[in-house]
Amino acid sequence: MREINIRDIKKSAVELISDNWGLVTAGNAEKFNTMTISWGGLGEIWGKDAVFIFIRPQRYTYEFIEKEDIFTLSFYGNEYKDALKICGSKSGRDIDKVAATDLTPVFADGGVTFEQAEYTLVCRKMASQFIDPKGFEDEAIEKNYAAGDYHKVYIGEILKVYAK
User: Fold this and answer.
1) pTM > 0.90: yes or no
2) What's the CATH code, domain 2-163?
């Protein structure tokens, strides 16, 4: 992994997150969990390069991101789509995702990423808050939250960016 500037990534945030998906990983070298993300964004807030991600409280990764200040977002080529499907559909409470996917953990800058990642963003939590259903102005609430299981939104400052 070599450190790069976030502006050197030539793929759009929509392509990275929505089209290709990614992994959000939280924890430490002793214990961590990862899950697939397909919602989120990259941008700027409060004068800092930042990420915006969404995690439901019933996800195992939620426990880790709540405990740690550092988390990573990592993005992969299409050849890893099956691994990302496993990380998004299976719980780390039930399976060893590293063994199930053959992803190789790498510990860097207080976070966990994977050797196979094309890009890794090391992030520090700046803010978090549950989505408030009163804030919805269209049918998205019925479509995405029929069970009332609202995501928690995390805003993270991008501290470092690595490329393969």
Assistant:
1) yes
2) 2.30.110.10
